[in-house]
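Bench notes, afternoon.
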Amino acid sequence: MEYLRAFLVGGLFCVLGQILIDKTKLTPARILVTYVVAGVVLTAVGLYKPIADWAGAGATVPLTGFGYTLAKGVQEGVAEHGLLGAITGGITSTAGGITAAIFLGVLVAFLCKPKPKG
């Protein structure tokens, strides 16, 4: 059942993104930023945690989950370190994911040969 819930919520995010691509003039970069900001806003108002608890990876893996992790890190940072935690909390909570993305991006760049377009 856990896989089904993750699939449904993750798929819903994908469908929403595809609708935004097809029906609006938003660029993919703006849609990605919108997803991250939506994750932060939904976390701030207390709506994203129940979704993440129910859907698991279907809600924590997409970009909205990155926004959720940023906001959660800021909340924890502020609780521990005050105003300084607002600056450091988000980076601390997402450091593992950012490091993995950079490392894997460099690894793929070394392993693959680019081909010119056309």
